[in-house]
Amino acid sequence: MLEEEPEYMALSVEQILASYDDAAPLAEAATIPGPWYVDARIAELERQTVFSKTWQMIGRVDQLEKPGQFLRATVAGEPIVAVRGNDNVLRAFYNVCRHHAAAVVTEPCGQAQILHCPYHGWNYGLDGALKGMPEFDGVKNFDRQQNGLVPVRVETWEKFVFVNLDPQAAPLHDFLGGLVGRVAPLEVSKLHYFDRKTYNIACNWKVFVDNYLDGGYHVPHLHKGLSSVLDYKQYTIENEDRYCLQSSPMVASNEDAATGATRKGDRAWYFWQYPNLMINCYEGYMDTNLVLPVDVDHCTVIFDFYFSDVSEKAREYNAQSLAVGDRVQDEDLGICEDVQRGLKSRAYGAGRLSVRREAGEQLFHRLLAGNLKGGPGSAAVAAD
Ligand code: FES
Ligand SMILES: [Fe+2]
pLDDT tens digit string along 204-244? Predict the structure, then answer.
């Protein structure tokens, strides 16, 4: 017997997009509907209109400090390499050989004097220029100047390196907008990279982002340990430009010793920058979360951890801090995978939003709708 086709498959992409009302004020608004999370056509549209047009973080400035240091990444399905030149200029390129399209750089990161394609040995300079091609004598109408690696825009902010596949995009600082001024006083540049953890989750990337942006709504229910150090009633949610800042005063906790010892300071700062980057800060601590779509119902989330002290004597404390984070992540992962199953159910359409808690989610959904619908609203969407 043939399996019944889900109802949304009978809808056109335009109909699916039209089923979300991005003009509704928060008190009347709903989430983006289920098909936005489960229809592969929407995922492909996101690749084209969101991930190919926004600034995407690919790594850290400290990985690209010296001439020849390089870093490989995938952005919107495109292989990318960023490299510091001998002239100290940071550049990025499509990591695609102009000969027969092999990946020129195959290591995730490192340092090199030239970029050497492993397939037939073509060499490119750190500035992307094609330097040499073995056994290519006698080839006519071949202009070496025109066959360098194809450049991609690259810019940095704080400790982070970003690329943008769209040659027309506004500069990174314009894209980040007010986020730049909000993060500056936290002095994250004084922190040092410690470790990375990668989670593969069976949910659409937006489910993870929604979970992050619910204004602490789920914290007392799902994260009992974390909940004990946050003053939940005082939790604030601010939307501006393309970012949302969720923040909470911290309280001393005896309830959960490990959380209390590793989540310190006066306030917790949780920044989300559209579409897929989070920056979480406590005193002497930062982690970033980069949410990368894999397919319509899978994503990878990369957590990078930073501390004020990464010396050997701080190692145990830092490891304990990561373990606390890991427990919170496990709690979130389970619920995200559950939600993905629910979003596919014929019983679900869209959900309403808490006015007190879920303004950040609405900002996300409006910005996304603006990009997917391709209207002028894609550049700036005011929050209520
Ligand atoms: S594909 Fe790179 S040298 Fe042939
Ligand atoms: Fe959570």
Answer: 999 999 999 999 999 999 998 888 888 889 999 999 999 99
Q: Which amino acid is at 344?
A: K
Check pLDDT > 50 for residue 379. no
Three-state DSSP at 330 gives helix
The string of pLDDT tens digits covering residues 107-152 is 999 999 999 999 999 999 999 999 999 999 999 999 999 999 999 9
Find the ligand nearest to 106 CA: 1
pLDDT band at 3 (very low <50, low <70, confident <90, very high): low
The ligand 1 atom at the shortest distance from the C-alpha of residue 122 is 3
Query: Who surrounds ion ligand 2 at CB < 5 A?
Result: 332
Task: Judge if the upstream peptide bond of residue 275 is cis by omega within 30 degrees of 0.
Answer: yes
Closest among 226, 219, 368, 208 to 301, alpha carbons compared: 208
- Cα angle: 327, vertex 274, 272; to 5 degrees: 40
> Which amino acid residue places its CA nearest to atom 1 of ligand 1?
100
Q: For atom 3 of ligand 1, which residue has the closest CA? A: 120
Whether the Cβ atoms of residue 20 and residue 33 lie closer than 8 Å to each other: yes
Pocket of ligand 1 (CB under 6 A): 97, 99-100, 102, 117, 119-122
For atom 4 of ligand 1, which residue has the closest CA? Answer: 120
Put simply, whether the predicted model's pTM sits higher than 0.90 gets the answer: yes
Distances in Å between the alpha carbon of 94 and those of 102, 113, 277?
11, 18, 22
